[in-house]
Every structure is written in C-alpha cells, then in structure tokens.
Amino acid sequence: DNGAHVPVLVIGTGYGGSVAALRLAQAGVNVQMVEMGMAWDTPGSDGKIFCNTTSPDNRSYWLRTKTKQPLSNFFGIPIDKSIPRYTGILDAEDFSGITVYQGRGVGGGSLVNGGMAVTPKRENFGAILPSVNADEMYNTYYPRANAGLGVGMIDPAWFDTTDCYQYARVGRKQAQRSGFPFVFVPDVYDWDYMKQEAAGTATKSALAGEILYGNNYGKKSLQKTYIAQIKATGKVTISPLHKVTSVSPASGGGYTVLIDQINTNGDTTVTKTVTADKVFFAAGSVGTSKLLTKLKATGALPNLNSEIGKGWGDNGNVMCGRANHIWDPTGSLQATIPCGGIDNWAAGGAFAEVAPLPTGIETFASFYLSITKNPNRGTFTWNAGANRVDLDWQTAWKQPSIDMAKTIFDKINAKEGTIYRTDLFGVYKIWNDTLTYHPLGGAVLNKATDNYGRLHGYSGLYVIDGALIPGNTSVNPFVTITALAERNIEKIIATDL
Ligand code: FAD
Which of 139, 156, 248, 415 would you label with 342, given CA atoms 20 to 30 Å apart? Predict the structure, then answer.
C-alpha cells in the first residue's frame, strides 16, 4: 500500500525473486513482491488462463498491437497477426540488433518457457561462474534447485514409441548418424500428465500446441512450485500490475521505492511510495540491468560501481530449421516440450535443442535452438534524451554462434543430403540471429556485486536473478539462476538479517 514500510521488497516474481521470497519467508521475514505483469490465475472467456500458440489473442504479447513470433514466416509468408494491445504474457523487447523475449507475470519466465531444466556439466561450471565454489553448487544448491523446481526426465521407453516425439527421434537418428551425441534433457513438465494427454485421458496442453503464451495444465511453472510454497507461508504479499520505477536511500534509513500501478493498457493509474529496509532486484537480466543503469545515471543510486550494465550476453542463442526428405516425416502431432539435444559443446561450442514445430500438420522440418559460447558482450547505457536505457548489441555479433551451430548442421545436411529451411524467419533467411530467449548478465556477480549479490555502494540492496550471470551458462539457464539464488539467499539470511 502507498506509504507502507516493509522489511523486504522483492522486484520481480521470476526464479530469483521466488527463491528469495520463499527462503526469507521461511526465516520469518515478511516480504512484499512487486510484479509488473498480471497474476495469470483467472480463466478468460474461453475457460482457459492462457491462449494457444496457434491462435494468439490479447493475452499473448506484452503491449503490442501485432504478434512478434520467433518463427515469423512459413513458406516465406509472414504469419504475424494483429492483436489488441494488452498486458499479455510474452514481452518481445526490442533493442538495437536484438529482440529479447521475456515472460511477464507472476512467475516471470517460467510462465512462457519450455521448462528445459538443465544443470550444466561440472567441467563447464568454472567458465560460467568463476568466483563460485563449484563443489557447494553441485553438492547442495543444484540439487536444492532441482528439487524445488520439480525437475524430471522423460521415460525413454515411452519416448521411443509415442507419436508426439517422432520429431525428436528424427533429430536423434540424424545426429547419431553424423557422429554427434544426442542427450535427453530434464524438464519441469509433468511427464505422467503428458502420457495421459497422449492416451486421451487428460486435457491436452503440451499436445495441444501450448508454448510461448503459457501452459494451462502440465507444466510446473513457478506458480505450481516455489510460488505455491510462498503463498503457503502466509508471510508474502504479491502485487501484480505494479512496476518499480525507482529505488533510492530514504532519509530515515532503508530505501524509498517508487511503484507505478498500471492497468491492462499499460497506463499508470496510481504512483505509490513504499519504504523498504532491504530491496532485492529480481526483475530479470534486462529488467534489473535497466533499473540499475537508470538509477545510477540519474543520481538515485550514484554510488553503484562502474560494472553496472556491463557483461550482458545472449547465451549464444541462434535458431535454424532443416528440410528433411519425404521419407523422414517429423509428425503432425508434436509435444511442445523439448526433451533432447545434440551436445557438441566440447568440440564446437554448440548445445542444440531439438525443438518442436507444433503446426498441427506434417512439415518435414527439423527445428533447432542452439546455445553457443558466443564471446560477445553488450553494455546497457542511459539515454537521457530519449529517457530510456539502450543496449549496444549488434546483429553481426551472432556470427560466432552461427559458425558454431554450423559445425553440427552443415555436417548433418551433408550426411543426409538435405538443406536448410530458408522460409521460416523471412524470405531466404537460414538463421534467426535477431533474438534471444536467454538474456544473462548486466549486474555481474563479484563485479557489480560482491560474491553473494550484495550491490557495491549500498548495504541492503541485492541482485538475485539472471543479471548476476556473465552472459552464458552453456545450457538453458533457469536451473543455474535458481541454484545461484539458493546459494546467495542462504548466505544473506545467515549474515545480513
Ligand atoms: P524472470 O524470470 O525474467 O523474472 C523477472 C520478473 O520481473 C518478470 O516477471 C518481470 O515481469 C518482472 N519485472 C521486470 N521489471 C520489473 C519492474 N520494474 N517492476 C516489477 N516487476 C518487474 N530457460 C531454461 O532454462 N529452459 C527453457 O526451456 C527456457 N525456455 C525459454 C523459452 C522462452 C520463450 C523464453 C522467453 C525464455 C526461456 N528460458 C528458458 C529462459 C528463462 O525463462 C529465463 O532465463 C528466466 O526466466 C530468468 O529468470 P529471472 O529470475 O532472472 O527473471
């Protein structure tokens, strides 16, 4: 409420924010969570909370009048369509040279993502978070995160027979024929539920094409895991459609937090002021970086150090499709939840998930999201004239990612006698090199903060989300974000409360 004083305020309700709020509440602390997106707990007129990928409506995009689908074309024909402007679930946030996809709502990215819950290989961890004790992570915090998130693995025997993973079996067969290992990837989807979907005994979600705009049944988003636990403590208040715009030292100690309450048009209806003893920035890599960059530059938090806004990376994301022969159909029924990938990380720097193309018709296409060790890093800066934060990324910076992905797909094409699809991202465009699903960095651990996320320059201010991770995790990032948050909040509760 306006004028309130709270012990702890958490900005954002994604992975980092949910871990912080839960552990603080369990330690007896009252927590106020502030989320700019909607609650996503009420069905629309169609009886569903979330809309379907094949028929995006106002619920699909954050304050856009036209969809911006990652796969923008089919046979070269643009498939984006007009939608009413609304505080929808998926933000396609445009910066120069890159569109950054993010979830908006209570649960953050967990609402929109594929649920792939991957713990990086131990030997790669030193390059991911060099200042963090790997033994502690692999013995304690990765297991804690996996348990808290409800991570599970597909039944390999079922994988071998079900229609809905024919596309992934084609991906496996072709990878193996070219000498690449295919690995199963854990996910937070309820695999027993998916079996029931396939058997026709449960309402379909993964098998109904739901992805990107929310999942109505089988996926264990944070709403079903950490946030359900948070609600059970009775010590946490969550305010959706509230956006933090400023944090600055309060005269009597603690911090003054300015919050805009917005309506579903995105317009501010009320501006509120809250005082908090401690503030956790958990607005996601982009949200936290934008806030801190602005607050440092505009004089609200001038003592933040010069690492603010730096070290931002795209986790080396790049997409492509391949056209298979007519005797290699990928199936008209495709589970939207990916369950495996091609691991060529050590040799060429690419971990490529075999992704679905859930169009409902046979496409003979194989579709991949590659994660690569792209060395390029962007910087956020305050643009006073335009009153916004800019990111200096360039599309050409994806070239190393394309080269790394080609080590896999050029070889598979040569072996299979196949070609790339050129019609999925425009007219004659092989690579989608203008987006990322995995923004990381901008307030890097042990640089902008100490080794536990305490911001340099201010006691009682913390970063606890993907902004801490310096640009790459070698695999999909949310398990690492969650595990790092578990590690940091344990230390903070033990020493700072
Ligand atoms: P987020 O989850 O982004 O949460 C931040 C929250 O803060 C958001 O809810 C946001 O609305 C809110 N916020 C921002 N600014 C403010 C503000 N000023 N005031 C109030 N609230 C604010 N990762 C994987 O590991 N596996 C996958 O399979 C996977 N698939 C993905 C698919 C898609 C389409 C996308 C977009 C992402 C995917 N990811 C995946 C990435 C993953 O979802 C993110 O890495 C993760 O959500 C980041 O967690 P976070 O805690 O840093 O922030």
Answer: 139
